[in-house]
Amino acid sequence: MATEPPFFEKYNAIFQSFADEKEKSTMVDVFEEIELPLIDLGQLNLGPFERQKCIETMARAATEWGFFQIVNHGIPEELLDRLNQEQVKVFQQPFDKKSEDKFLNLSAQSYRWGNPLATSLRNLSWSEALHVSLKDISKRDEYNNLRSTIEEYAEEANVLAQRLAEHLAQNLGIRASYFRENCSPNSSSLRMNRYPPCPYSSIMFGIVPHTDSDFLTIVSQDQVGGLQLKRNGRWVSVKPNPKALVVNIGDFYQALSNGKYKSLTHRVIANGESERYSAAYFYCPTYETVIESCSKPSLYRKFSFKEYREQIQKDVKATGDKVGLSRFLLGIN
Ligand SMILES: O=C(O)CCC(=O)C(=O)O
Ligand SMILES: [Fe+2]
Q: Tell me, what's the pLDDT at 25?
């Protein structure tokens, strides 16, 4: 039984029109490979001086990069390996099974691939993903290993995300309990990505450019590489570090910090030879949470997570793009 999503069948018209074009411009160039600022969270436990320095370095990375990588983060390597093994297994299931509405007893459309609204190869993601809303996960069924691994990982990731969010809030005057009050382990989600080798790797993305709709994201990835971010107007490749987790600021922290921390546009390039796996933990508030800038004058009007999501759904339908935070800029709309 076929395990790969039927990219060519479903998006036949798009591939066909590409094949018919005379000019086949190559989109992916050679990119500078950079190492993200590395934060050793072990420094937090050494003493007040080291602790303060570590928090300041993190805040600087969130301000200047919007991305950083962390070591000594407290998530056991064994758990990360197990998550990866379960992830490999889940994507090895037949495509027909993965695309069933009740696959793994998760909410409908937890399994995603391609992009139903794609109009060209440029906005069609060559990847499949299991997007697990963590409120779905505590049921027991035949997939106990996967579920318990996700549950275990999500618990650890939630603690880590809350710690990071709190440290980053320290210099912004946001009360320490803000994240505890507005985020619960069930309000976040875990997206497991698989990027199959792509025969059109020079002209397609693994994931098209986007920002994340959350406070922050914790990404674990394998050695293959392909994550790129847009920094000062230029795309750069992130050098994978097998010992580190990648952290990136999402739209909500950008709004909360009144633009100080940056939710950078990022993407994953497709790879012609190797498959790649990553798992992204999106640290999100409950739907009712209202996100308001921590300082005045505010760049953004306040909005609830629910409102943000609904606006994205509307914009994606109308324009094919999520638009995102710029919708909420004051003085624009
Ligand atoms: O695969 C990666 O490295 C990043 C994935 C990502 O950006 C996402 O799932 O939002
Ligand atoms: Fe992302």
A: 63
Measure the CA–CA gap between 294 and 256, rounded to whole angstroms: 6
Q: Is residue 312 included in any domain, yes or no?
A: no
- Tell me the CA–centroid distance for residue 159 and ligand 1, in Å: 20
How far is 14 from 103, CA to CA, in rounded Å? 28
Residue 311 lies in a domain: no
CA pair distance 147, 102, nearest whole angstrom: 15
Q: Known catalytic residue: 276?
A: yes
- For the ranges 137-141, 143-147, 153-157, 168-172, the lowest mean pLDDT is seen at 137-141
Atom of ligand 1 nearest to the CA of 226: 3
Answer yes or no: is 305 within a domain.
no
The answer to the question of residue 309 being in a domain is no
Nearest to 220 by CA among 41, 10, 78, 53: 78
What CATH code is carried by the domain that includes residue 199? 2.60.120.330
> Tokens representing 83?
């998550």
Instruction: For 74-231, list the strands marked E by DSSP.
Output: 111-113, 128-133, 189-195, 205-210, 216-221, 227-231
Neighbours of ion ligand 2 (CB under 5 A): 212
CB 330 within 8 A of CB 255: no
Residue 307 burial by Cβ neighbours in a 10 Å radius (0-12, 13-18, 19+): middle
Residue whose token pair is 């990982």: 153
Domain count, the chain: 1
Report the residue among 132, 207, 248 best suited for mutation to probe ligand 1: largest number of ligand atoms under 8 A from its CB: 207
Domain of residue 279, residue span: 25-288
> Does the structure's ipTM exceed the value 0.90?
yes
